[in-house]
Amino acid sequence: MKLIVADDDKYTREGLIELIPWEKFGIHEIMQAVNGIEAVRIARWFRPDIVLSDIKMPKMNGIEFVTQMQKEHADCRVIFISGYMEIEYLRSALRLGAVDYVEKPINKKILEDVLAKTVKEILKVKQGKAAIGDQMELQQKKLFKLLIQKDSDEKTMHNIAAAMKFPMSQNFQCLAGMFFDGLSGSEEDSIRMERMGVLIQETFPVFLSNLNQEKKQCEFIVTYSLKEQYRMEPLCRRMLEEFPQLRLGIGIETSGFRGIHNAYQAACAALNCAFYRKDERVFWLDEGILQKKIVDPGIYGEFLRILSLKPMQLSQWFEGLFESFHNGKYYHRDQVYALMISLLTAAYRQYPLLYGVCPQIMSEEQIPDRVMKMNTLWEIQELVKLLTERIQAIEEEKAQYSRIVRSVRSYIEEHYMDEKLSIQEIADEFQLSGTYLNILFKRETRMTLKQYLGNYRFQQAKALLEQSFDKISVIAEKCGYANANYFAKVFKEMADMTPAEYRKEKSGYEE
Predict the structure, then answer these.
(1) Are the beta carbons of 478 and 486 closer than 8 angstroms?
(2) For residue 351, what are the CA distances in angstroms to 217, 318, 365, 400, 466?
(3) 491, 502 in Cβ contact below 8 A?
(4) Phi then psi for 56, rounded to 5 degrees?
(5) Alpha-carbon distance 168 to 255, whole Å?
(6) Across the chain, which distance is largest between two alpha carbons, in Å?
(7) Distance (Å, rounded) from C-alpha 163 to C-alpha 356?
(8) Distance (Å, whole) CA 24 – CA 469
(9) How confident is the prediction along the chain (511 residues), in pLDDT tens digits per residue?
(10) Which residues pair with 173 in a beta bridge?
(11) Is the dihedral of CA 97, 102, 104, 106 positive or negative?
């Protein structure tokens, strides 16, 4: 809680502050004022819960100060202190709703008793207001959902709207907003929603708001008269100026509550365009937005054929795919996300060496989360460019080896996690003797099969130590080492440091 001590006598003010254990009463912020005028000025921005004020002060006495302050901050409770016991002063104080009247010289116990009673009353009022506020918030959310749904119960809508004094026959506009730095339902998101509400209310006093966790967007239904219509564009500019990460979709204007469903759908569809236009920030309805476009399901099969038979053409194939997405910018981004997750999952399965190219993707389970966090198609394109370049490099490297050696390398990439993988098992897989396969492999790669397998496991372990938060024992298991101790011994021989030391040096993380 916050407190102002207003008294023209410095020793009285500072003595009071030293005398009372304020934290005991939940009071953690205290300001001082030397007269009523200064107290009014401080109260305007400080917004105290309690004022402890002398009645007689120069320039503006306590009665005048509290009279002025309560016009702007009626919830503040007042305790007057004075050495003057004139009955008129006391009556004035009581008319203002002063909690109590404490006589100088101050008795500590009497003042503490008065403070305890005052704090108790303040908390009771706050709890009551919080309960009312929670109920109003629930009603607002319910009304919002009813208004945006098709064929909602009109009687229920009208009853809630009447209780909230929300008009149902004016003009309405829907706004949908998305923050490019994410929307998770955190306290920071609540603060941003509250601030956006303040901006809207300064322009259009009546509106409803909703934080949509599923769509990761903030939503508003604004109501206004026809002559206020021009204020929408300036409002959008103010919101975009204050929140650089914000993108706004503006729906169609509708007259009467029955059109709100379509206005809301239009706002969400307009916001979807932010996925395709990374440099734009506000999106208005146009004719193409409401056209439903479905991503061709045959794309996945076509991709698998290219991936398997012509991997060197993947870059060109993706260029064509992204061009078609940009030209048909009204595909819903969820369709694009779903398709890209499927394509990338197939690519990572075909090329395990891709893990680590994007630091946020070290396992197949991380692919969906990484893709869904990308706010624009451009970001997905950049990731795909990295991956296709790596696939091309892998294919170019493979091209210098014979079919047998390429197949052996691929087999190791797929099975290195198995601690029982041996040279003999690899040779048996290709129906060759271990000795012959080793000679053939070393002739082309300049290292034995054992050396290649050990180095491959070592490189994978380094990537996991740098990019993941798995325990070292888990990383050892993932990379095909028999146990953590053996892993630590082999790693130190190859890197001249322990796995824990390597992780700390590369990422600063300590297990």
Answers:
(1) no
(2) 35, 17, 15, 18, 20
(3) yes
(4) -95, 115
(5) 9
(6) 113
(7) 57
(8) 43
(9) 899 998 888 888 888 888 899 988 888 899 998 888 888 888 888 889 899 888 888 888 888 888 888 777 777 888 888 765 555 666 666 666 656 778 778 888 888 988 998 888 888 887 766 665 557 778 888 999 999 988 888 888 888 888 888 888 888 989 999 888 766 666 777 788 888 888 898 888 889 988 888 888 889 999 988 888 888 889 989 999 989 889 999 988 888 888 899 899 889 888 888 888 888 899 887 655 556 677 888 898 899 888 888 888 999 999 999 988 887 666 888 889 999 999 999 999 888 889 888 988 888 889 999 998 888 899 999 999 999 999 998 888 777 888 898 889 889 988 999 999 999 999 999 999 989 999 999 988 889 999 999 999 998 888 888 777 789 999 999 999 989 999 999 999 999 999 999 888 877 767 6
(10) 222
(11) negative
- By the 8 A CB rule, do 249 and 273 touch? yes
Determine how many CB atoms are found less than 10 A away from the CB of residue 462. 20
**pTM for this predicted structure:** 0.55
Helix (H, G, I), strand (E, B) or coil at 447: coil
Containing 231, the helix (H) or strand (E) segment is: none
Tokens coding 331: 């595909």
**CA–CA dist 446, 442 (Å, integer):** 5
Q: Which long-range contacts (CB under 8 A, 24 or more apart) does 183-190 make?
A: 183/211, 183/213, 183/216, 183/217, 183/218, 185/211, 185/213, 189/218
Interstrand relation of 77-82 and 100-103 (parallel, antiparallel or unpaired): parallel
How would DSSP label each residue in 391-415? HHHHHHHHHTS-HHHHHHHHHHHHH
User: Encoding tokens for residue 208?
Assistant: 């409803």
Taking Cα atoms as reference points, which of 379, 386, 385, 358 lies closest to residue 276?
Answer: 379
Cα of first residue to Cα of last residue in the chain, in angstroms, is 41
From the list 267, 237, 247, the residue with the least C-alpha distance to 174 is 267
